[in-house]
Amino acid sequence: MAALATLTIAACQSERFKTPPFYQDQASAGVQVDAATAAQMISQYRANNGLPPVSPDPRLTGIAQSQADAMAAEGTVKASLAPAQQLATRMASIGEPKTAAAENVSAGYRTFAEAFSGWRESPKHNQVLLTKDATRLGIATSYAPATKHKVFWSLVLAAPAPQ
Q1: Which of 40, 64, 114, 133 is surrounded by the most beta carbons within 10 Å?
Q2: Alpha-carbon span 150 to 132, nearest angstrom
């Protein structure tokens, strides 16, 4: 009986001390940013600024992932400027060539909390977070251990999908 009580306490303690998703280190292969947590934090920030919430969208996450992967492969955020990586091109690739969308790209942040803080403090990145008509988001990271910044981020915010 005492062993069961000890095991139960240990399980509770490990849950209590679990790293929150927004502090999860992205600097490892295969780690994915928690889109639901990102949407929740961004939505709260948007609500504080009188804007509607955003929710995760798997197709936007797919195009965010392609952007993060392209930057990681090249080892620079400048890879986001390539014609194939332009946001309009990637939106068209998912059948939404006319949907209003905006994107933040960055590198070097190890956690979503760091990336979110950096985006809020940058006027141009903050403008994307506060995109007026956005209701959906896609967010992704890509890890490149041999590069200076290690972790590359893409956040796509978009208006509702056409019906």
Answers
A1: 64
A2: 31
Label the pairing between strands 101-107 and 136-143.
Answer: unpaired
Query: Whole-angstrom Cα distance, residue 27 to residue 45?
Result: 25
Sequence-ordered strand ranges (E) for the chain: 55-56, 101-107, 136-143, 151-158
* pLDDT (tens digit per residue) in 72-108: 999 999 999 999 999 999 999 999 999 999 999 999 9
Max Cα–Cα distance, the chain, nearest Å: 65
Find, among 10, 30, 5, 6, the residue nearest to 151 by Cα: 30
Band of pLDDT at residue 32, cut at 50, 70 and 90: confident
* Contact (Cβ atoms closer than 8 angstroms) between residue 130 and residue 102: no
Averaged pLDDT of the chain = 87
pTM assigned to the model: 0.83
In angstroms, the CA 33 to CA 119 distance is: 16
Per-residue CA distances from 113 to 23, 75, 86, 148 (Å): 6, 22, 26, 20
